[in-house]
Amino acid sequence: MQLLGLASLIIYDVFVLLYFKKMFPPKRSHWLFYLAAVAINIGIAIPSYLLLDHRFAVYLIMGSIMLAFHLLFYGNWLQILYAGSLYMFSLYSSRGIIFSIYAFVLHTSIKDVLQQETYYITIFALAVLLSILFSLFIRKVIVPDTSARHLLYNKEQLRFVVVYLFIQLVFLTLINDGRFHDEIRQSWLSSLYLISCIISKLWLLVLYHTTKVSELLEYELHTRQLQEQLSRQMRHYQSYRKFTESYRAFRHDYKSMMTSMKTLLYSQEYEKAARMLDDIHDTMQRDVLVHKAYSNNVLLDAILQDAANTCEEKSIRFSAVAHLPENISITDLDIVRIFSNVINNAIEACNKVSGPEPFIEITSSGNPDWATIEVSNSFNELLWKDGELETTKESKDFHGFGLRIIKETIEGLGGLIFIEADQEKRIFKIKLCIPKASP
């Protein structure tokens, strides 16, 4: 029977760690590290339940899974707390349901059930099974993994979920203490414990709500970006229309000016011809608007045109040559999601520079397999946390989406993103590598 309990704990640990691997970027991928994490948790869990009061054992085991998470995955402190509380709450509430049902069926108290080793191990194995089935139900029906990721990166909503899980866990441990009080009618305690554990499982409603809120916040961000992009394209169109109109007006007079120029040259009146050339040049500089192209892609060019205007207003030196090959599979929405966020972050960083002239420089290059665009900008400070770049904006919950969207979109295209920060020269570089389609 002891082997059944050990096998159940191993299965549960592996199931949870594989779920975390799917949801969080791994620090270590080799299976030996996962084996070590399972061994650490088992080495802490079994002695804790055998030697310590259950009220302390619960939180010690929770701490061990948090340690395993920290060793295996990248995540902030809130995500680590979520991992630990989810692991322990799911197992503890499932165990409470099975214990209570056993007490009812056997017409005895929870305390007596716990004192029987055979019952205890069997109940633990059933609790593991219930936890896994309930988790799969949530992931398949209520909150799919793709939706849950929105919650994991929304600090405000995730904080609410962590606090809720922790309070529920404390509440269940307090009710479980009732088995040590003989003056409490045990049948009533079993009913209370069963109902409490079942109600606590309704945390999936909290999970569903917070996930939806996180999705709506990200949708709002996308909508705002699309609205901003529409405004950029309208400004780009107006600028191009003015350029076209001014060019047509110049072209209207161009034929007569060239006729006059030929006449002067045939008459060998070179000084007058030179003055006329100067007048034509001055007229062109004065009346014909210069439309500078930054990219061969119309949408990206509109984004860069708008960025150039913003940089001019903010006294930021701006230069860009961004060529997007036709044989890369990138949609207009991808272009907006990637480059709007990259450029907005660069402008935001330059706004905080108090030293030499801030700058933004965009270059492009490529080879037969990859198209590469590199964005360099000056910066004043960067915040690195848990191996990732974190926003320095005050509204971290909202702006944190933009930092993640760049990476998700590039990786969704099968591409790579490289970040380099020269602290001495105060130059930040982000390199976007996008694969080209096979011929």
Automatic annotation (TrEMBL):
Residues annotated as transmembrane: 6-24, 31-50, 56-74, 86-106, 118-138, 158-176, 188-208
**InterPro entries in the record:** HATPase_C_sf (IPR036890), NatK-like_C (IPR032834)
Q: Mind listing the GO molecular function terms for this protein?
A: ATP binding; identical protein binding
Q: Which UniProt keywords apply?
A: ATP-binding, Membrane, Nucleotide-binding, Transmembrane, Transmembrane helix
Respond yes or no to whether keyword Transmembrane helix is given for this record. Answer: yes
Per the UniProt entry, the signal peptide is none
Q: What's the domain of life for this entry?
A: Bacteria
Q: Which CDD domains match?
A: HATPase_AgrC-ComD-like
Spell out the Pfam families in the cross-references: HATPase_c_5
The Sensor histidine kinase NatK-like C-terminal domain sits at 333-431
The reply on keyword Membrane is: yes
Name of the protein? ATP-binding region ATPase domain protein
Q: What is the lineage of its organism?
A: Bacteria, Bacillati, Bacillota, Clostridia, Eubacteriales
